[in-house]
Amino acid sequence: MLKRPVWNVAGTALALVLATNAPASSADLGAKDEPIKLPMLEYTGQHVSTHIAGQLLQKLGYKVEYVTASAFPVFSGLADGTISALVDIWLNNVGDIYPKVLATKKIENIGSLGLETREGWIYPKFMEQICPGLPDWTALTKPECVQALSTPETAPNGRFLDYPSEWGSRSATILADNSMPYTAVPSGSEGAMVAELEAAEAAKTPLLMMFWSPHYTLAENEVGWVKMPPCKEQAEKHCITQPESVKIVWSGFGAKWPAAYALLKELKVNAQEQEKMMLAIDKRGQDLDAVVKEWLDSHGSTWQPWIDAAKK
Question: What CATH class does 118-238 carry?
Answer without folding.
Answer: alpha beta
